[in-house]
């Protein structure tokens, strides 16, 4: 246990206070933030804009924590899954999904999850602990650092092909759909969202949080059933917030012009994939500006839940489209490496 300050655990104000308590000028705090969040410095000695003496002083009082990469695996579709270990030895997973000009990172918000959805491996772990804001953020820094081959990128970025050109792919989009229920870790999650936007510089339009409504980011609701009876069965959280109250809340969500709520609907054979389910779903969402992502289940080992046959999936979508809904069939990426929706376990 060290009594040094972890610089990544500090908010913007705390970084400025820390620097001024050392008797240093304000611009040093700006430099520190730039080197940690835009240039991914993993230790104080990498911050070469600071003199040797200044680095020595900082090292006496502080350190920069880092997620430790335990393992990474690549799927045949290009999706990559990273297993990281935290300071206390717990592990989490993050999934990098390349798609044309986008590079999306699906990040975790908790170690395990208390909600116990029956189709999800994370839920089987129960809640082990919440992630701290900096641990949520650090998944982005760690993967960007891996993408940069651990070189310190210049800031501001140099022009492609210019002198000292050093370009590398960077994460462009964030989805909060990894391990855990983001809103069950509300305070740390909100702080992490601010830091993703302000420190790392990813626009809030490119961040999607899967659950109920907070801040001005894209909203995705994991719905998965149209009646309380079937939703109770696969998502125990429904006993607390039944379907009607969830849909009412969505109807009141302050959507920006031109934006829509995304409803995720995992199709499970014999549970929620009937023609009646499709009709009920269309009726339930009528009047809400939304689109529906139909995700055929990724079956889990030792679990009786199955993926519906192809013809049921197509029929389900057809009924939604006939009812003037926007519905897309989305196959989860990275199925072969257990990186798809509901398959993360941190192992
Ligand atoms: S699907 Fe999401 S909310 Fe449900 S158990 Fe898995 S991680 Fe938790």
Summarize it.
This protein has ten helices and 14 strands. It has 347 residues and is α/β, with parallel strands linked by helices. β3 (68-74) and β4 (80-85) form a beta hairpin.
Which helices and strands occur, and which strands form pairs?
Blueprint: E1 5-6, H1 12-21, H2 27-38, H3 52-61, E2 62-63, E3 68-74, E4 80-85, E5 91-99, E6 102-106, E7 110-112, H4 121-125, E8 127-130, H5 133-147, E9 173-176, H6 186-200, E10 207-210, E11 218-222, H7 228-234, H8 243-252, E12 261-267, H9 275-285, E13 290-296, H10 310-322, E14 326-329
Parallel strand pairs: 1-2, 6-9, 9-10, 10-11, 11-12, 12-13, 13-14
Antiparallel strand pairs: 3-4, 4-5, 5-6, 7-8
Helix pairs in contact: 1-2, 5-6, 9-10
This protein binds iron/sulfur cluster.
């Amino acid at each position: 246990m060290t009594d040094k300050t972890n610089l990544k655990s500090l908010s913007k104000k705390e970084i400025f206070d820390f620097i001024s308590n050392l008797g240093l000028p304000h611009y040093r705090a700006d430099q520190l933030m730039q080197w940690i969040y835009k240039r991914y410095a993993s230790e104080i000695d990498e911050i070469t804009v600071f003199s040797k003496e200044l680095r020595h002083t900082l090292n006496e009082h502080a350190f920069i924590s880092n997620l430790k990469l335990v393992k990474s695996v690549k799927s045949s579709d290009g999706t990559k899954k990273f297993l990281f270990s935290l300071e206390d030895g717990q592990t989490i997973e993050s999934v990098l999904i390349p798609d044309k000009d986008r590079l999306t990172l699906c990040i975790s918000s908790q170690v395990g999850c208390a909600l116990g959805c029956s189709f999800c491996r994370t839920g089987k772990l129960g809640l082990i602990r919440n992630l701290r804001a900096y641990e949520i953020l650090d998944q982005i820094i760690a993967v960007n650092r891996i993408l940069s081959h651990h070189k310190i990128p210049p800031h501001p970025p140099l022009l492609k092909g210019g002198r000292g050109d050093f370009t590398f792919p960077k994460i462009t989009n964030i989805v909060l759909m990894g391990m855990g229920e983001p809103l069950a870790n509300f305070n740390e999650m909100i702080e992490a969202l601010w830091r993703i936007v302000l420190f790392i510089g990813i626009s809030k339009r490119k961040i999607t949080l899967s659950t109920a409504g907070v801040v001005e980011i894209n909203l995705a609701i994991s719905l998965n059933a149209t009646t309380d009876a079937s939703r109770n069965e696969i998502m125990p959280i429904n006993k607390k917030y039944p379907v009607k109250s969830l849909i009412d809340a969505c109807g009141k969500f302050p959507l920006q012009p031109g934006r829509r709520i995304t409803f995720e609907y995992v199709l499970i054979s014999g549970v929620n994939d009937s023609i009646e389910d499709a009709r009920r779903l269309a009726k339930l969402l009528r009047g809400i500006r939304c689109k529906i992502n139909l995700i055929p289940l990724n079956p889990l080992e030792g679990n009786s839940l199955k993926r519906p046959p192809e013809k049921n999936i197509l029929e389900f979508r057809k009924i939604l489209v006939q009812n003037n809904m926007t519905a897309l069939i989305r196959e989860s990426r990275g199925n072969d490496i257990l990186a798809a929706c509901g398959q993360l376990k941190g192992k």
